[in-house]
Amino acid sequence: MSLKRNTIANYIGQGYTALVGIVVMPLYLKYLGAEAFGLVGFFVLLQAWLNLLDFGLSPTLARQVAVARGLRNGLKDFGKLLRSFETIFLLVATTIGVSVFLSSSWIADEWIDSRSIPKETIAFCVALMGVSGGLRLFASLYRSGLTGSEDQVWLNIANIAIVSMRFIGAFLLMRFVSTEVRIFFEYQVIIGVAEIIVLAARFYKNLAINPVHLALGIHWPSMRAIAPFASGIAYSAAIWITITQVDKIILSGVLPLDEFGYFSIVSLIAGGIMVATAPIAQAIMPRMTNLLVQGEKNKALQIYRNASQLVTVIAFSIALITGFFADALIYAWTGDGVAAEWGGDVLLWFALGNGVLALSAFQYYLQNSFGQLRLHVVGSTISAICQVPIIYYAATRYGAVGAGIAWFGIRVVWLMGWMPIVHRTLVPGLHFNWFVKDVLPVVLVSAVSIAVLNGLVRIDLATGRMAIIGYLILLGSTQLLVAAISSNFIRSRISQYVYRERRVFKI
User: Fold this and answer.
1) Hey, which residues does 113 pair with through a beta bridge?
2) 285 vs 273, which has greater pLDDT?
3) Is 256 helix (H, G, I), strand (E, B) or coil?
4) Nearest-angstrom CA–CA distance, 244 and 48
5) Phi and psi (nearest 5°) for 428?
């Protein structure tokens, strides 16, 4: 299997998924309306929380497939473990469907605040969300298995097809058939069934296993062997979902459904900051781990510091432009003036909070590379315990803006309070250089730059969406350039490049 081909395929698949979301989500808002779009946002939120019921089994299966493929006759007895996973996922998916169906009326009556959609319709849609969520959880098992078997080129082609059917197909239904929100969720169930069939067929083909010959049931010796790894993955995932999704679940019960639809737009935009910096984390962790194993600690720490500067430049540039020109960005993307007016102040705080989160995530990258996650488990647990009541109080008392301010405040306190502890424990003496020399100059220069730009530029929404997009691109490029110049790592790289070019041309 070609690592290069798989890597390129992953980038293409993930890029296509992101592009479809950027294009289609505003169209959903336009054709469904704010309240029905709020139900779509609630579905996305429910799906995120249902991932907790994966129990770490999907990534565990991916690892076990890779291990089995590396052993002689390793796949011979793999069917027992696979069928055990399938049995567990079938039970979990069934439980999800039944539980959400039984609670759908309560959710429609007591949790979701709708002004125009009948309660019966909301209950029906919520029930279908449970069915669709269970199906997608089950499909994640085979998707992880295909990843572990390195069949990633085919998997990304299949994902592109499934994403197209799920999102573009749903839009075509709205555009040419009906904008009734019930049809949207019925269609999602159909795609969920098709997804399982396609992925399962390919996975079994790769394994050369006939599923008919496997008895349904759990093979306990196989499950006991992988339990420690799966439990560690499950706990980390649960804490991460709690930290990043608790504000959304609280606001789904606090806000009217139309406002929660607008908040879904805000959440999607703010989440793009983490997406923009994720490839850097994916690249540095294995390299740092490899260097530390070889005893090259100084080289690993230099990569850590350089990457910290790079992420600070990218994350804070995006966060500041997104936050301080939030209303213009929302309007340019959706064409909805009401969404822009409602979401401007909310997006400001969530964007700034996610910018800080992208930087504070480096303490996890360092711990992962050292192979010491104890502090991460302790710190994440403390963070979740403190965050939930604070976000709940802020959201219930001050609404979405209050939740955003609380989110930003928590992230700043976490960066300033927990980061030094991790650095001091793993690498004494690192934190001062990391914060004062690497991070702080970029943050301060970026703050001054956005203050100047915000004081000089006022974007009138009446100028038109294309003109606004042009303004935002120009402002974003300026902010990114100023932030990049403030980074000594980037300046040194530019100097090295200019020196090489001068030598080549003998200037």
Assistant:
1) 256
2) 273
3) strand
4) 10
5) -55, 135
Task: Determine the length of the chain.
Answer: 507
Instruction: Identify which of 430, 496, 489 has the alpha carbon closest to the alpha carbon of residue 306.
Output: 489
Using DSSP, state whether 223 is helix, strand or coil.
helix
Q: Predicted confidence band at 410 (pLDDT cuts at 50, 70, 90)?
A: very high
In the numeric block, the tokens 């909070």 are attached to 353
CA 446 – CA 443 distance, rounded (Å): 5
Angle in degrees, CA 465, 467, 473, rounded to 5: 100
pLDDT tens for 57-92 read: 676 776 667 666 655 655 566 767 777 878 888 888
Q: Are 59 and 233 in contact (CB under 8 A)?
A: yes
Q: What angle do CA 138, 139, 140 make, to 5 degrees?
A: 90
Q: Cβ–Cβ contacts within 10 Å for residue 390, how many?
A: 17
Nearest to 487 by CA among 306, 354, 276: 306
Query: What are the start-end ranges of the H helices in 294-361?
Result: 297-324, 326-334, 337-360
pTM for this prediction: 0.73
Closest CA to 353 of 394, 385, 382: 394
pLDDT value, residue 232 = 63
Instruction: Report yes or no: 237 and 56 within 8 Å, Cβ to Cβ.
Output: yes
Three-state DSSP class for residue 113: strand
First to last CA, the chain: 45
- CB atoms < 10 A from the CB of 278, how many? 14
- 440 beta partners: none
Q: In 429-468, at which residue ranges do the beta strands (DSSP E only) sit?
A: none
The stretches of 33-77 forming alpha helices (DSSP H) are 34-50, 57-69
Report the Cα 315 to chain-centroid distance in Å. 15
Higher local confidence (pLDDT), 432 or 13:
432
Domain ranges within the chain, ordered by starting residue: 3-227, 255-505
Amino acid at the residue 346: V
